[in-house]
Amino acid sequence: MDFRHDILPMKDKLYRLSLRITLNPQEAEDIVQDTLIKVWNKRESWDEIESIEAFAMTICRNLSLDHQKLRDNQNASLEGMEIDRADRALNPLEQVQQKDNLERVRQLVNALPEKQRSCMQLRDFEGKTYKEIADILSITEEQVKISIFRARKAVKEAFEKQNNWGV
After folding, report:
1. End-to-end CA gap in the chain
2. In angstroms, rounded to a whole number, what is the distance separating the alpha carbons of residues 32 and 35?
3. Angle of CA points 105, 111, 117, to nearest 5°
4. Burial tier of 144 (Cβ tally within 10 Å: 0-12, 13-18, 19+)
5. Quick one: which of 64, 91, 103, 143 is 20 to 30 A from 75 by CA?
């Protein structure tokens, strides 16, 4: 196993995971650095680790949770992050509406409980399998499925409520 070719390419995934938990870009960068250092310090036992990616993601998640608990800032937002996925074929009004909808969904996902938010992030944004998520979060696959189901349901219901009531 080579750090430069096997571990370092995971830094973007680690950053996205940490950012989803901490909601703070600078803190997420620091956590990724700490994670990479911890993985490097375990280099003697890399051959014994079944999945180095799951190992690194677990370290990153735990560090992120520790940082969040220290900050105790559940209501932070992803300020400065830009969503620019508007389809260029849409007219300007549709682009604004789509961007607004994406922002509202992002806020709803950020408001989810940590386990649901992490499961949803790893599944829907990172494309991880249920087994990989279970390994990373140290929970059962059934708990992963339940968390994802509840997260999606909560986001959908809250989004529909906002649309119906203009909240």
Report:
1. 51
2. 5
3. 85
4. buried
5. 143
The residue among 155, 166, 162 whose CA lies nearest residue 105 is 155
Q: What pTM was computed for the model?
A: 0.52
Residue by residue, pLDDT tens for the chain (167 residues) are 778 888 889 999 999 988 888 888 888 999 999 999 999 998 898 888 888 888 999 999 989 888 877 765 333 333 333 444 444 456 777 777 777 877 888 888 888 998 999 898 888 877 888 998 999 889 999 999 999 999 999 988 988 888 777 54
Other C-beta atoms lying within 10 Å of the C-beta of residue 83? 14
Helices (H), the chain: 11-22, 25-41, 52-71, 92-110, 114-120, 130-137, 141-165
Residue type, position 96, single letter = V
DSSP three-state, residue 99: helix
Distance CA 152, CA 148 (A): 6
Q: Which H helix or E strand runs over 50?
A: none
